[in-house]
């Protein structure tokens, strides 16, 4: 594949969706399918070496479209497969099905994966970079004003994110009891100023 300059998204589509349609294992096929997408995109250099291209974030955001892309092939082909339930509650295929998977039309799956790659490049990665820059700015502010371990700052950010930029009364009394009321106000204001711009 690498020597032939095969398109990375098409290669990932054919291999990963082909795998999940064959469904060789009783468990883990979906996870392996998503791993194959990431592995092939990485192997064919869709991103810089050593960088994980976060296409799964886009797939997760489009989970219903993903399901439809899977079912657009798997449901029609299911009508062509003769099968029976086995004693161990698995499935035994009774007819020859290899050509259904060897020569499947992956157009809808390729369109979906191209859409996810586009979304990853144009939305997911820029949002993640923006978040990291804001997080780093907030951490620098905290480091300049207070002495807190990184784990405490990380927990502080999570709590502030979950509660719209403020610490709940419970969080103030429990996890952040060491902070004075004035310090909490300074932290909340800085968080809102940095993260809400």
TrEMBL record:
Gene3D superfamilies, per database record: Fido-like domain
Superkingdom of origin: Bacteria
Residues that span the membrane, as ranges: 6-25
Segments forming domain Fido: 1-86
InterPro entries: Fido (IPR003812), Fido-like_dom_sf (IPR036597)
Record organism: Geofilum rubicundum JCM 15548
One Pfam family recorded for the sequence: Fic
Keywords: Membrane, Transmembrane, Transmembrane helix
PROSITE patterns according to UniProt: FIDO
Descriptive protein name: Filamentation induced by cAMP protein Fic
Keyword Transmembrane helix recorded: yes
